[in-house]
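batch job 7 of whatever, protein = ATP-binding cassette, subfamily B
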Amino acid sequence: MSIFLFKIAFIKNRQMAKTRNIKPEQKISFRERMSALSNLPEFFKLVWQSSPGKTTASFLLRIVRSAMPVALLYVGKLIIDQVVLLNRHEGSQHELWKLVIIEFLLAIATDGLNRMISLMDNLLGDLFANYTSMRIMRHAATLDLEQFEDSVFYDKLERARQQTVGRTVLLSQVMSQIQDFISIAFLLTGLLTLNPWLILLLLISIIPSFMGESYFNSQNYALTRSQTPERRELDYVRYLGASDETAKEVKIFGLSDFIINRFKTLSDKFYADNSKLAVRRSAWGTFFSVLGSLGYYAAYGFIIYQTVTGKSSVGTLTFLAGSFRQLSNLMENSLNRFTSVSQGAIYLNDFHEFFEIKPNIKVAASPLPFPNPIKQGFTFEDVGFKYHNAESWANRHLNFTLHPAEKIALVGENGAGKTTLVKLLARLYDPTEGRILLDGADLRDYDIADLRLNLGIIFQDYIRYQMSFSQNIAVGNIDEQDNTELIRKAAHESLADALAAKLPLGYEQWLGRRFNEGVELSGGEWQKVALARAYMKDAQVLILDEPTAALDARAEYEVFQRFSSLTQGKSAVLISHRFSTARLADRIIVLEKGKILEAGTHQELMANNGRYAELFSLQAAGYQ
Ligand SMILES: Nc1ncnc2c1ncn2[C@@H]1O[C@H](COP(=O)(O)OP(=O)(O)OP(=O)(O)O)[C@@H](O)[C@H]1O
């Protein structure tokens, strides 16, 4: 009967699943569940690596704890039998009190073990979460920029991130499972020797509940998995609604209601989906628990009958009834837990999937030594690049050479492909077609870390680190973070030193408002700090992507005076929308729709009377 009802629910649920956008491939079969268990050894390896000592302690404590239920029941039986004997003036008072003290000690030991196990689980859980978070960050650092720009990648990253905390539950579940199995083995031995028939009754009363749990767990997984993109959006909306970085614009544009409504729409949908499942799960759970109670009372009646008819002692009655109840609870718990363990093991797939993502940008097996000094420069040979999932090319048919000691300015309208070109130079992406040569050899043949060490790049969307002034500069060459002299020199070169002098704590001043006593800087001030990062290393090529957009006219003039003298003998690439800046370069490359439209000195391009001359005159007219 129950199976029949269960099937109806299953069919109905399949129909509902369709309306709830659960993709069919996200449902998991029993086989998938079982095969996911093969993830457990790898999982335990991670747990072990997090803390070998605590893993061993937790395991040993649970083994001792697993013998406690049967020991307590058995001593209880002996006590009752002794009391019955004493009533008949046959027993021993001394024996009785000895047993009571033993039971008392066992009870205290059980409580103590429970507390130690839970303490161990918590500590191990925290260590595991920290360890796996670090593993995720380490792996993420090896991946390509392009992978970070892909939403499917983010879903995987998000699911892996959730596993760092979520899987600590799996850890204690698996441990508890082992503990319960041993307890069950002990209790079953008692039941088998005293009354084997009860075992059959036991199985009948718990199997429906197990099937129900297993079914609802798989539904839960399918639902959670299908909700990943929305959950990320929910997190994002929550961040938009309450963050120092967004507060200004949210206030000015009066966006709070808009954001709250979006949050409400998303969270209401979550609530509706989750609560439907929770209600159905609870209703079925109640039904199965009634079945379990029926089984228990049938067994209880049977044992009472045997005691009344003199086939067992009163002590045996309490032992059997107690064993049956405990066994039924333990078996039900461990069967149910089995479904959550296999469920948890399936979530581990997400974790492993993330670690299986490999970077596409290959590192040369035996890299060429990076030239110092660069002799021929960087040559773009028909280079084209298309972003993942993009329709059009961001760069196409690029042919030019950045010579040693040459200063090139890249100009062009928004979206012309200037930043992309620079990213190709730094191998944040590899060309989709064509190749970039450095001193005649493919850029891919050099060591990528060496290449980046030789490039000093400041992007337009540089990070405003919520760290100290000095660390904000040191990130340009983190190995030198303790080199105060170098940091001060870099700050001097980018004009940031005058700013440090104004700050209450100078170079140790915390920047940004996110943490205590941080000082917020203006846009231009931040830019000067970021610029200092480029001077932290003795890079052979300096690349500044709109470095002065936020600087005032005097600061921009000074920055460029210094930039020119500091980059003497070095190559430099400058991206700027200000033609007054661009004209200082040895050569100007005008990009349009990813292609080179024209190139030459300021004078040549003006004489050409092409797009550069047009844009230059347009800007100059604005100043008159
Ligand atoms: N991460 C990305 N994913 C997909 N497309 C991108 C990405 N970044 C840029 N693009 C697209 O590539 C083209 C070139 O962008 P790029 O950032 O190189 O232009 P830009 O010349 O530096 O523009 P701006 O002057 O506005 O900084 C644009 O059409 C842009 O939409």
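notes: Residues 1-25 have pLDDT under 50 and may be disordered.
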